[in-house]
Automatic annotation (TrEMBL):
Record's keyword terms, sorted: Actin-binding, ATP-binding, Motor protein, Myosin, Nucleotide-binding
Domain of life: Eukaryota
Protein name: MYO1B protein
GO CC annotation terms, alphabetical: brush border; cytoplasm; microvillus; myosin complex; plasma membrane
Matches recorded under Gene3D superfamilies: 1.20.5.190, 1.20.58.530, 6.20.240.20, Kinesin motor domain
Organism: Todus mexicanus
SMART domains assigned: MYSc
Length: 347
């Protein structure tokens, strides 16, 4: 039962997914250039075609909806759907039962009063009932002016368009237009920032512990665009780290770098990787970072480090036990000499 509200929410998700991939690729490319690493072009699904289907000023779904809301005559949700069937008939991401494209005419899973959009995360069906009414902004000018005259400062601040000094004789913008403008402002703001993404995965619908619904999690992973992000990351180098912390973490794996390396950190990492006989195609040296291509190489380093730590722990334990036993032995020897000397004195 997806309606207008879910439609504009999914539109926002499409825009966020678009900027998410763009910023991810941009960040990857900028770091490779900065570090002097050769950049490999990465193929990925660009959902700009879906965003254009929704927000295009001439042929977009929101533009068609605004046109229906503003034109004179009898306007219904069915006339809106008919216009979509005409304008978006051949679009590869738009589906309708009465579309001009015959491949959808026999789709019994799609009711006559619905249309379907193939979003980047999958197909979503929308019920057109209520689209026109919900898109019309029913907050008329006289109501805004009345609220602006209220004595309460909060209510007055909530209706700035009621200010007589800002009277606009144009018809108030539709809900879709306002949302589209808000999304554009959000995208412009995000483009100037360096955002960090936190993805929350719901393991089950019961809000219960120890239940992991594979199908639900996989659906969320696709919907959140994590597969595209993983593809972008894996197409380049999966792991990168500055030379100093890398050498500090793995220096115990090489006799030449353990326990102290006196030269530059990069030279130490080169000696370390040569000693471990890691294939040259698995890593690259940047200006300030080491780049590792495949996760299995990193897992190998971690396994070797774990084993080495266990060996070092055994060595420390052995030395401590030897020191403790020798200290006890020397104490007993010293005590025995004292006892013997006193015994011989009185004998």
């Amino acid at each position: 039962d997806n309606s207008f509200e879910q439609f504009i929410i999914n539109y926002c998700n499409e825009k966020l997914q678009q900027i998410f991939i763009e910023l991810t690729l941009k960040e990857e490319q900028e770091e490779y250039i900065r570090e002097g690493i050769e950049w490999t072009h990465i193929e990925y699904f660009n959902n700009a075609i879906i965003c254009d289907l929704i927000e295009n000023n001439q042929t977009g779904i929101l533009a068609m909806l605004d046109e229906e809301c503003l034109r004179p005559g009898t306007v219904t949700d069915d006339t809106f759907l008919e216009k979509l069937n005409q304008v978006c008939a051949t679009h590869q991401h738009f589906e309708s039962r009465m579309s001009k494209c015959s491949r959808f005419l026999n789709d019994t899973s799609l009711p006559h009063s619905c249309f379907r959009i193939q979003h980047y995360a999958g197909k979503v069906m929308y019920q057109v009932e209520g689209f026109v009414d919900k898109n019309n902004d029913l907050l008329y000018r006289d109501l805004s002016q009345a609220m602006w005259k209220a004595n309460h400062s909060l209510i007055k601040a909530l209706f700035p368009e009621g200010n007589p000094a800002k009277i606009n004789l144009k018809r108030p913008p539709t809900a879709g237009s306002q949302f589209k403008a808000s999304v554009a402002t959000l995208m412009k703001n995000l483009q100037t920032k360096n955002p960090n993404y936190i993805r929350c995965i719901k393991p089950n619908d019961k809000k219960a512990a120890h239940i992991f619904n594979d199908a639900l999690v996989c659906h969320q992973i696709r919907y959140l665009g994590l597969l595209e992000n993983v593809r972008v990351r894996r197409a380049g180098y999966a792991f990168r780290q500055a030379y100093e912390p890398c050498l500090e973490r793995y220096k115990m794996l090489c006799k030449q770098t353990w326990p102290h390396w006196r030269g530059p950190a990069r030279a130490g990492v080169e000696v370390l990787f040569n000693e471990l006989e890691i294939p040259e195609e698995e890593f690259s040296f940047g200006r300030s970072k080491i780049f590792i291509r495949n996760p299995r190489t990193l897992f190998k380093l971690e396994d070797l480090r774990k084993q080495r730590l266990e060996d070092l722990a055994t060595l420390i334990e052995k030395i401590y036990r030897g020191w403790k036993c020798r200290t006890r032995f020397l104490l007993m020897k010293k005590s025995q000499i004292v006892i013997a000397s006193w015994y011989r004195r009185y004998a």
